[in-house]
Amino acid sequence: MNTYKNPYDPIKIKAAHKLIAEFKYDLKPLEKGYSNRTLYVNIGKNEIKSKPVSEQMKEIFTGGRGFNLKLLWDAVNEDTKWDSPENEIVIAAGVMGGVTQYPGTGKSIVCGISPITGAPVDSNVGGYFGPYLKFSGWDAIEVQGIAEREVIVFIDGDNGVVKIYEAPEEAINSHLIAEQMCDIFADNEQEKKFITTVSSGIAAEHSLFGCLNFSFYDRRRKVARLKQAGRGGLGTLFRKKKIKALVCKYSSLNANSNNVSDLDTIKNVSSKYHRELYENDDSQCDMRHVGTTHLVEIMDDYDLLPTHNYKFGRHENTNKIASPVWREMFTQGIPDGCWYGCTMQCAKCVDGFTLKTGPYKGDIVSIDGPEYETAAAFGANMGIFDPHFTVEANFYCDTYGIDTISWGTCMSFVMECYENGILNKERTGGYELNFGCGEEAMEMLHQMARGEGFGKIIGLGIRRLKQKFIEEYGADPQFLQDIGMECKGMEYSEYVTKESLAMQGGYGLALKGPQHDEAWLIFMDMVNNQIPTFEDKAEALHYFPMFRTWFGLQGLCKLPWNDLEPADNAETDEPAKVPEHVQNYVDIFNAVTGKNIDKEELILQSERVYNFQRVFNLRLGFGTREHDQIPYRSVGPVTIEEYLSREDRYDNQLKDKWNWDPTGKPVEERHKKTREFREDAYRKLCDAVYNRRGWDENGVPKIIKVKELGIDLPEVISVLNKYYQNK
Fold first, then answer.
1. Residue pair 5/358 in contact by the 8 Å Cβ criterion
2. Is 3.60.9.10 the CATH number for 10-249?
3. Which helix (H) or strand (E) holds 471?
């Protein structure tokens, strides 16, 4: 249980509520995974209504991310900016979302026009909100408008009513408001498990990469825990709309709340997977003890752990932030699933942590994570090898509503700028921001929350920081472009990609920006050499983004797919795909819906939504080849220092890979040649991927392709015609 110096009064908070709007609806059971309606809430106009879901919408967009994108498309226009009133936050669980038998079915998918990129963004998150929303009777919720005053939207799935409250007294920061919502909307301690909340935090108001926190109540710890929809700045959008919380209450969960077509098949497939997990997890990724932090030492071993703003791939102090350290800090022995029935139990928690800085100094709290991405970003990338710093910064990023990946990558960029003289103490407000400066980094985070100082400036994100440093400080544009680890405006997640051309494409070609949830091909490409040609890489960059898109259509977590494998998976024809688990998903989808798709139709479902999202990008002025270009540090060594740190590797590649003899050549010439060859390889990769996906040489889907996929809706063709009318 969290212990606060300044406890709140839930009675006083609730008494200050003012009911603004109310909407009653009929409660009815789902039909094979669908409620067949979506919820529309306009907090600017205080309007609430139900929208039907047509069979065509289900056929084309499937669910989850697909529904979100279609609802968002219909709500906005080509001139919509992230802070326009018509921009929406759209949340859905997906068709298989909420199934309690199979691990990883508790994901929610969130979409909106991103503050950090200006394009449509999707972000996935654990917690209970998506499933509870669906079981309350809604396949998705879209929230539009900007409220005049702070509001809470409450979905009462027990009584069939949706309410908008003016809410002046609640906290904004997530660790507090999530618990306040449990105290206010639950009648007793036992009912708190029926309450789930979406919130952000005060720093999201002062940055462009605010995150959303989705809560789930931990009955054993007696605390509302938080999972993050981190990417794309949707927490910033949330606070722009003056939303304090979206709250859903649902108390009637049962083994067949999805009202599926064939529950026995789901039970049989799930039982087999659970046995596999209990038998193999300890010897594979050990997710139940260390979660995703098992990756820290693996990435370091393979020279892939981002270190000092991605300059290097390993560090001698990595053992200080490796998984054995986290295993000791995480509470063991308490089930840690973020949705019912998930035996993977990877939602790790640090309990009884006393905060040492900031407004909550002295409070004793439970903190979720860190995940690998946070451990890597706050550790090696910033050069801070202190797990206690990582945990405290993790807590404050969460409660303040800040994406840990973007903040960690921004701080790493700022630190390299400081060490290169682009920044100094005068420009940072008196703070030394070298690599390894943990106290100063923490102060930047607190400044961001207060909306002041250089910390607020960091919240602009790398793309805008580059422009600011060029215009105000006379920094070299090429150097900043090379080291600024962003693409499409979004900061990179935490993998070094210099030796994996396929992973460079996985980041650069991702629709929303460089996030690894589209494709993680480093081991296939760099370690195992399974995709040696451009065509092989293009095929991987077709299949894996499409397969991973399917998780977003269904409301699924990706970790049960390939962070645990059958014992004989290596003996299969396509071990990287984990074919037994792919078939599990096909079987469960069919069992939920009563359909009879196969693994090829699975990919086709995703292709429809993926290409629709690419067209959506085009509609808003993005989505062509120029937006798929990546910083050179993602491709190769920017500095001579980097080249010399792996001199033998780069020299041998010049000779063996590109047939250019480096013998006796000055390092500057070898460095330049390496860049020429590597950048040319990335251009050829883009050509191959565009061709495989059915896009033209500029990355625009061909009209024949969208017709083949059945997404040749008039509004889609209208967008594409603008790109093809002059050809």
1. no
2. yes
3. helix 462-473
- Geometric angle at alpha carbon 614, from 608 and 615, rounded to 5°: 90
Give me the phi and psi of 52, to 5 degrees please. Answer: -75, 150
**Using one digit for the tens of pLDDT, what is the confidence trace for 382-402?**
999 999 999 999 999 999 999
**Which position has the token pair 């309606």?**
37
Torsion sign over Cα 455, 227, 97, 562: positive
Distances (CA, A) of 242 to 85, 201, 328: 11, 11, 40
Strands 151-156 and 243-249: parallel
Kind and range of the H or E run holding 416: helix 404-419
Enter the tokens of residue 456. Answer: 């607020």
CA 218 to chain CA centroid, nearest Å: 23
Q: What CA dihedral angle connects 73, 76, 81 and 86, to 10 degrees? A: -130
Q: Is the peptide bond before 120 cis (omega within 30 degrees of 0)?
A: no
Look-up of token digits 């026009």: 113
| Nearest 10 degrees: Cα torsion 328, 334, 335, 336 | -50
Helix (H, G, I), strand (E, B) or coil at 3: strand
The residues facing 161 across adjacent strands are 24, 156
Distance CA 367, CA 353 (A): 8
* Strand 140-144 to 37-42 pairing: parallel
CATH of region 501-724: 1.10.599.10
The tokens for 522 are 């480093």
Residue with tokens 């789901």: 266
Q: Which residues of 616-648 are buried (b: 16+ CB within 10 A; e: fewer)?
A: bbbbbebbbbebbbbbbbbbbbbbeebbeebbe
Q: In percent, how much of the chain has pLDDT > 90?
A: 98
Predicted pLDDT at 591: 98
Using an 8 Å Cβ cutoff, are 52 and 27 in contact? no
* DSSP secondary structure, 323-390, as one string: HHHHHHHSPPSS---SSTT-TT----EEEEEEP-SSTTTT-EEEEE---HHHHHIIIIITT---HHHH
10-249 with 501-724: one CATH topology? no
365 token code pair? 């709290």
How far apart (Å, rounded) are the C-alpha atoms in residues 495 and 527?
14
CATH architecture of 263-491: Orthogonal Bundle (1.10)
DSSP reduced 3-state for 24: strand
Q: How far is CA 685 from CA 108, 528, 692, in A?
A: 32, 19, 11
The per-residue pLDDT of the chain, averaged, comes to: 97
Q: Which two tokens stand for residue 180?
A: 């306040």
Q: How far is CA 657 from CA 532, 649, 660, 662, in A?
A: 12, 11, 8, 12
Question: Shortest CA distance to 208 belongs to which of 407, 65, 375?
Answer: 407
Sequence length of the chain is 727
In DSSP notation, 50-84 reads: EEE--HHHHHHH-STHHHHHHHHHHH--TT--TTS
Half-sphere exposure of 70 (CA within 13 A, CB side): 24
Ordered by start, the domain boundaries in the chain are 10-249, 263-491, 501-724
pLDDT tens, position by position, 30-70: 999 999 999 999 999 999 999 999 999 999 999 999 999 99
Query: Is the pLDDT reported for residue 657 higher than 80?
Result: yes
Q: Are 638 and 645 in contact (CB under 8 A)?
A: no
Residue 377's closest CA among 462, 494, 496? 494
CB 108 within 8 A of CB 91: yes
Q: How far apart are CA 130 and CA 105, in angstroms?
A: 10
Q: Please check whether residue 618 is in contact with residue 720, taking contact to mean a CB–CB distance below 8 angstroms.
A: yes
The pair of three-digit structure tokens given for residue 304, joined into one six-digit string: 């892939």
d(CA 26, CA 371): 40
Four-CA torsion 418, 423, 426, 431, nearest 10 degrees = -30
Half-sphere exposure of 309 (CA within 13 A, CB side): 29
CB 665 within 8 A of CB 511: no
pLDDT per position as a tens digit, 215-246: 999 999 999 999 999 999 999 999 999 999 99
Measured distance CA(350)–CA(390) in Å, rounded: 11
